[in-house]
Amino acid sequence: MLIGSETTAWYVGLSLGVVVVIVAVIIVGIILILASRIAVQARTAREAVETIRAQTAQLGGIRQINGSGVRILHAARALRKAAVGK
Q1: Which tens digits make up the pLDDT trace of 56-69?
Q2: What distance in Å separates the CA atoms of residue 7 and residue 21, rounded to the nearest whole number?
Q3: Distance CA 77, CA 82 (A)
Q4: At 63, which helix (H) or strand (E)?
Q5: CA–CA dist 76, 86 (Å, integer)
Q6: 34 vs 18, 40, 43, 52, CA distance in Å?
Q7: How far, rounded to the nearest angstrom, does the alpha carbon of residue 9 sit from its chain's CA centroid?
Q8: pLDDT tens string 21-50
Q9: How buried is residue 43: exposed, middle or buried, by Cβ count under 10 Å (0-12/13-18/19+)?
Q10: By three-state DSSP, how is residue 1 classified?
Q11: Cα–Cα distance between 18 and 27 in angstroms, integer?
């Protein structure tokens, strides 16, 4: 009778071990699939950033353009004041 219960316990332990290994394999598989998706998205994002960088590299003189615009605005306000008298 004692030998039968030891064998049963051994089978139960072995079955639980197999279940744990199967669950671990499933989890690792899911992680690998998600990592692959993230890698594809990261590659797409990197390409988009490079495109944006190429498109905005020509805006290097924007500070000078803004400064000129501000000076034109101040000159226009001064002219308006002189014309209206305020």
Answers
A1: 777 777 778 888 99
A2: 21
A3: 9
A4: helix 62-84
A5: 13
A6: 24, 10, 14, 27
A7: 49
A8: 999 999 999 999 999 999 999 999 999 999
A9: exposed
A10: coil
A11: 14
